[in-house]
Write a structure and sequence with these properties.
By secondary structure, this protein is of the alpha+beta class. It is built from nine helices and twelve strands. The strands form three sheets. It has a five-stranded antiparallel sheet. Strands 4-7-5-6 form a four-stranded antiparallel sheet, with no helix packed on it. A three-stranded parallel sheet has the order 2-1-3, with helices on both faces. The longest helix has 17 residues, at 16-32. It is globular, with a radius of gyration of 19 Å. Mean pLDDT is 89; it is low at 199-206.
Amino acid sequence: MTKHIAVLMGGWSAEREVSLSSGKAVSEALKQLGYKVTSLNVQPDISEQLLKIKPDIVFNALHGRWGEDGCIQGILEILKIPYTHSGVLASALAMDKPMAKKIFAAAGLQVAESMVLHKSEVIGKDPMPRPYVVKPFNEGSSVGVKLIFEKDNFFFTAENWTYGDYVMVEKYIPGHEITVAVLDDVALGVTEIFTKAGFYDYGNKYTEGGSQHICPANLPKEKLEEVMKMALIAHKSLNCRGLTRSDFRYNEKSGANGEFFILELNSQPGMTPLSLSPEIANYAGIGFNELVERLVKGAKLGD
């Protein structure tokens, strides 16, 4: 009997458009694979929609808050519908950047110096010596991330900070932008990211030509193996499942052979035509349709 897959996409986070793109690509792949597919543009009545159509499995193509922070996962647990990607706790921990960093550090991974502050402590002043990075607690796709360099004539105001009362301020780590995809507890490969301007922010991620991806990254073999091992440790330390992508900085000047700093783990990596994880999977010999099917076959309840 053909399985019925509900693809959840859209939602109402800052990453809605990216999610719609991911969901469209996933839905098309599932149809090509022969599944019965219902694509759902998620609204607050998602529970009622799911009860009505009664899917066998949910493919979670949501990004950002409410979609990858444990909220939708909790609903699916209550409805007892198996779903792709990580469970409730792992999703919540991955989305909470300060908590995830504590867990990574406890697992022996190197993280950048950081602090959690009320927004009043960053408005009109420098909370730490420049350069530093300011991040919202719980947004993905680099939404709201701001790099503050020594010569920048910039300070936050009450008007230009719109991401909640508390922020994470992190020491800026110069160096190579590195990312690693992990699938089913196996690190697939390492990509280095170059941008034409600025850093790998939301615009560069999802604008054609905004960034260049080199896979495998042009690093010594031992360094590729080292960062893949680190990504797997990060994946397992949060008890993630399915597909994750961990982002790193590689600072060649911070040690005799260079050091990796883990920045964050994405428990719901993008599945758009410009997304990194499908690129890395393809390098490892896993085409897009196979990647989607492996995620569906790994769908389950619980962490």
